[in-house]
Amino acid sequence: VGAMTIGMIVFTLVLAGFFDAMATIIGVGTEAKLTDDKGRMPGLSKALFIDGAGGAIGGLTGGSGQTVFVESATGVGEGARTGLASVVTGLFFAACLFFTPITQIVPGEVASAALVVIGAMMMQNARHVDWADTATAIPVFLTVVLMPFTYSITAGVAAGVISYVAIKTAQGKAREIGAFMWALTVIFVVFFAEHPIEAWLGVK
After folding, report:
1. CB of 31 within 8 A of CB of 73?
2. How many domains does the chain have?
3. Tens of pLDDT along 169-191?
């Protein structure tokens, strides 16, 4: 039971971390027009490696995970395209340490206005979706809607993948689904069934 508990924890963290990072990097990269004509992100493997290393280092040092955040889209919306924007942002944060009493007056909700604008800008990519194709439209809709409602990028991606495979199979087009998508579907089903599985195994 102890090994199963540890396994489920590691599985959940890896799954959430990977797909949160993947979706954020591709989403922000697309908005920054850093993707190629097929929507692929050059250097994605390096970005994921750095993201994973940052999370591991953060855990080892007792700090927060140094991973990619969707708030980076705010900088992209202002024209940021390189890591220099992050360096400048970090310097401003460091400067704020000397003005902590003043910065505490400003509520965190102030950033929400900028994120709403950036979110609206990122939704422009929805025009590229073939909404007439049920197998595409429904998974995209579930992905977009469930991310904010569940506060989880992973849950949104999981719902999109599972629904895509289910619809394609129902349409008799199971052969069009790649092995990777089938594997992801199994993984995501286990992800959603985590709590029932733990209850069945008596894991707390």
Report:
1. yes
2. 1
3. 999 998 989 898 898 898 888 88
